[in-house]
Amino acid sequence: MLQHARREPNRECCGILAGRDGVIEKILPATNAAPKAETQYEIAMQELFRLMREIRAAGLELLGIYHSHPRGENQPSPHDIELASYPDAAYFIISPIEDAPHPARAFSIHDGIVGELEIQNI
Fold first, then answer.
1. How much is the pTM?
2. Assigned domain for 97 exists
3. In whole angstroms, what is the distance from residue 95 CA to residue 97 CA?
């Protein structure tokens, strides 16, 4: 995810995360189809459907969605909170800034309520 964000440092990158039992096994980068890709992200419906079919075919489940914040702190913006439509998914926000204190942060977003999640490397 961090490599993806650093390849596109002036645009929000995005993708989905798949795995089993709460462990991410696969990162699936997507194309940012948002008209204002410098400050927003959107995965086109056709690509999202293709990625979800790929996840199901591999016997995995959707665990998270990620995107980057090229210019701001990597915490959910009001726009991110408004558009969060997968309450069981973790929302990862990546900072492409080389010396960011926390380059990857994860959040639960449910009914407008945001909680930060602990990321564990296994």
1. 0.93
2. yes
3. 5
Q: How far apart are CA 73 and CA 78, in angstroms?
A: 13
Residue found under tokens 């459907």? 49
Domain membership of residue 117 (yes or no) is no
The token pair at 12 is 């929000």
Number of domains in the chain: 1
Determine contact, residues 12/39, Cβ cutoff 8 Å. yes
**In CATH, what number is assigned to the domain containing residue 57?**
3.40.140.10
User: CA-CA distance, 98 to 12, in Å (whole number)?
Assistant: 16
pLDDT for 77-120, tens place per residue?
A: 999 999 999 999 999 999 998 888 899 999 999 999 999 999 98
**Residue 90 near residue 98 (C-beta atoms within 8 A):** no
Residue range(s) defining the domain that contains residue 39: 2-103
Please state, in angstroms and rounded to a whole number, the distance separating the CA atoms of residues 58 and 56: 5
